[in-house]
Amino acid sequence: MQDIVISHISKSFGEKRVLSDFSATLKAGGSYALMGASGIGKTTLLRILLSLENKDGGEITGVPTRIATVFQEDRLIATLSAKDNLRFVLGNAKDAEIEALLTELGLAESLSAPVSTLSGGMRRRVSLARALLFDAPLLLLDEPFKGLDKDTKLSAIQAVKKYSQGRTLLFVTHDQEEASLLDATILLLSPAEP
After folding, report:
1. Starting from the edge strand earliest in sequence, which strands make up the sheet with 4-13, in order?
2. pTM of the predicted protein model
3. Domain range for residue 104?
């Protein structure tokens, strides 16, 4: 695992510039909260790190080939259960870990229910569990705690803290408390220069 160095990244969509000369270094094994106003480029930066979006300029080095991700959308298979959604990515070998983490996230009663029958907050926790158990040195989480009530959010944050040990964590949030609870260094995105 190595540091991820983001140097002078720029990105525009047509006439709208969302990232302008953004630079940061993510130390290997560090925890980072990406913050800033809505529409300022937080998700775009994650998509660039995932190679789902091309940057217009700048350079990024040190990004591993395996990345665990929670997208803004849950991206689950609606007809599969919570357990089977995780098995689909992780295989059967991790059954005990899958059940333990889903239980830790308050989903013990819903392990076998199709995710289409779960609430938005429950689906969010299934997506989070899938990312946390995926064997990758980098975790990119886009608003991983949205839709969770206070107690559920606290247990989810504890799970992230536990399962991100030894990995680099970059997550998008609008909540200073989430950053604080995860001992995260804040990376603040400012409005792009026109």
Report:
1. 16-26, 4-13, 57-61
2. 0.94
3. 78-129
The tokens of 149 are what?
């009530």
- 71 found inside a domain: no
CB 133 within 8 A of CB 162: no
**Chain segment 145-183, per-residue pLDDT in tens:** 998 999 999 999 999 999 999 999 999 999 999 999 999
Q: Give 52's contacts (C-beta < 8 A, 6+ positions apart).
A: none
For tokens 């990312």, what's the residue? Answer: 131
46-78 core/surface letters (b: 16 or more CB in 10 A; e: else): bbbbeeeeebeebebeebeeebbbbbeebebee
C-alpha distances (whole Å) from 106 to each of 25, 26, 82, 111, 122 are 35, 31, 12, 10, 8
Cα(133)–Cα(163) distance, rounded to whole angstroms? 7
Q: Do both 30 and 125 map to the same domain?
A: no
